[in-house]
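A brief tutorial aside. Many learners find it easier to grasp structure tokens once they have seen a single protein encoded end to end. The record that follows does exactly this for Endonuclease III homolog. Read the sequence first, then the structure, and try to relate runs of similar tokens to stretches of the chain.
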Amino acid sequence: MLPTLRNLTMRTSRVAKDTSKLFDTADATAEATANAASSLPRRSTRSSLARFSYTASTAVTTKEEPLSDIEDALKPTPPSSSAKPTIARLTKRKRATTTTTTTSSPPSKIKAESPSSSSSDFSSPESSPDTKPKTKAKAKPTRALRKPARKTTLPDGSISVSPPTGWEEVYNVAFSMRLPGGAAANAAVDTMGCERLAAPTASVKDRRFHTLVALMLSSQTKDTVNAEAMKRLQRELPAAREGGEVGLTLENMLAVDEGVLNELIGKVGFHNNKTKYLKQTAVILRDKFNSDIPPTIEGLMSLPGVGPKMAHLCMSAENGWNRVEGIGVDVHVHRITNLWGWQNPPSKTPEETRLALQSWLPKDKWKEINWLLVGLGQAVCLPVGRKCGDCELGLRGLCKAADRKKVNEGRKRREVKVEMEMGVEVGVEEEGDVKMETKMESVKKEVVKEEEGEEVKVKKEVVDEVDVEMKAVRPARSARNPKRSE
């Protein structure tokens, strides 16, 4: 029994000792944590620096809300055996400080700067009496919207076509460019167009045949080359019989050999095919149209190598039938009207362009538009390398396809030209004044020279007399002393 009690006593004392050691360690840890928290350096904040504010001239009273610093939020927690001491984090409230200044003027409240202040706290320039209200910028003038030709279905089912917006202005400006002195004046078509290549000495019937042949040779060929080929035919096409007249006639065309004809027109494009077409056309004209050209569009288009463009141009030419029944649309008319945006969507073929133009363009311009746009396309609006800087349509902003860089360069050149012309006029006036001043100066110089000339003349005469006397004396001295003279 005794040994058992002794052992129990010993066990109890060991547990007590271990427990006391554990509490001692916990107390030491808590004291160390408290000392570490109290020894942290205090951060300088606005509230801590407020006592250094300058208050010499005015008495400032500051009212602040009692806010705790971030350091005050650090509270040590009792340590535990399983977790480290934690720090409670509090969110910092926004500081709003209001200061009241006492001066001679009425008291006013000034809101101090705070992190949450924004630009809206300050008075706007419009509210201050010193600042003037800003004037609104002038709106740029908007360009008139240009629309292409539009189709409208009427209540009765018919279709009405409205012309493009502002087409008359564009047409008139282009027409002025084709007149003498314009950028597109003196184009090749003006002197070497197909309707101008007929021989003036030929008969009326032969002139119509010349116009048809010129149109058949003109496809894919420049006007200069076409004109040269026509001249050769009119001069060198062999006569059909001996003693006959040499030149371009239907009878000679029927009799000429294809090889000779091919050689005469060898410079035009596709001359081999055109040689065949000319020979076939001559036979058709002889057999079906009484050795004359067909008097209708359908009859002209029935000839080999003749399309709608050639048919309408031949029909409306002065050396043709001189009747306007349609528009002769070639590549220039087709291309330029699409550049102007007159067809929407853009037409794909010259025939589509012809039908579109004839639906709204006044008939009195059907013949003129070909001459207008062909010359413009040859001189200014070239297929490659358009001269937008020389085009009035581009300079005035009427062409939607104009190259802006070239237009700006053209405007600068025009401004320089105007300045130079104005400078020349001013220079002429100044030159007149200079001439008058120069003339007056020259008269004065002549008078001075004349006066100086008289003085010089008198002095010269006096000097000459002295020289004569000296010369007369010197021989006498030499005669007295011959050795000295030697």
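Self-check: The two ends are 185 Å apart (CA to CA). If you spotted this yourself, you are ready for the next section.
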